[in-house]
Amino acid sequence: MNVTNCLYRVVILMILQSLVAESAFIYNVLSFGAKPNGATDSTQAFVDAWSAACASNDSTTISVPKGRYLLPSAIKFRGDKCKTLDITFQIDGTLIASSDYRILGQANNWLSFERVTGVSIIGGTLDAKGTALWACKLAASTGCPNGATSLRFTNSKNISINGLTSLNSQMFHIVINGCQDVYIRGVKVNAAGNSPNTDGIHVQLSRNVAIFNTSIKTGDDCVSIGPGMKDLWVEQISCGPGHGISIGSLAKDLEEEGVQNVTVRNANFKGTQNGLRIKSWPRPSSGFVQGVQFIDAVMLNVQNPIVIDQNYCPGNINCPAQASGVKISDVLYRNIQGTSGRAVAIKFDCSATNPCSGIRLENVSLTYRNQVVQSHCTNVNGNTSGIVQPNSCL
């Protein structure tokens, strides 16, 4: 299935879900004992509301009215025993983690959904209060926990996230893992530019995912695309601060699924470390990247606007120092313009044993402080059309 069909399928799915949701039976978390005062632990109330909704035979809505709800610990919403295939979380309030980062920091996820079908999250704010944990990590202190992803969907299908705001996640903000037919729209992510490992939206081992009209300010990748991602559409996204939109890092494992059929349209990058990036570790791998389109992007003082890095090794510590086994092919960059933060605005550093192929540049215009911009190519084959500045090294 190509990306256009993926987009059509996901949008139609979500329209049908919204029509059904209008008649949903409502479970109000206040009725289960939740307190909107920001101080009383409301975990059990959310668990009980989920259990009630899950046991229903009809379309249901879990209502979270205005207020601040303390959810200090990890909560797992499981769907393998649910009767209904249509549960909507209507969040008008703010869900907050404990101010003591150690309580949540030992968990992998804060709010996680596993094996659910037909779950929609509408509105609301997640405040994971991750600033203290970032400070611990940035100070290179011993004993800092890894931290938790704020929202994670695993092995699920027919998922919608609309209008959600995620603040100060300890680790990743939103993770989509092993899912099918996912629609994300109007999401806002906000974390400090130096917050470590706080990727905005991470997708992997999934298919038919669409992300629209999203604003991400964070300390790592705005959108990160992991192994096994197929049929992804990203459109109207603003990124900055952050590390850009990245496919990878790949080649973490010898046996690894590929990334294919990815389209990114109308992306804006402001002051980011990277713009459009594909990265893999320099080690053997069965992985690949194929059928990627980067179309209509604007860069404003982006350090590395266009980059393929198959010698990825942050900090140059314990680098594998081998040739990447990841095969990168059929990648299009069309209508990319703006300003680079460095003289080398385009850098293709590909694998010696698996050179990049089918790399295309169409109408690319990047400048650097009114100076001559450069491109750099290693082990790459491709072509250009239209005006391409800097002059192509393909």
From TrEMBL:
InterPro entries: Glyco_hydro_28 (IPR000743), PbH1 (IPR006626), Pectin_lyas_fold (IPR012334), Pectin_lyase_fold/virulence (IPR011050). It is found in: Secreted, Cell wall. Coiled coil: none annotated. It holds the Pfam family Glyco_hydro_28. It comes from the Eukaryota. Belongs to the glycosyl hydrolase 28 family. This is Polygalacturonase-like. The gene is LOC110773394.
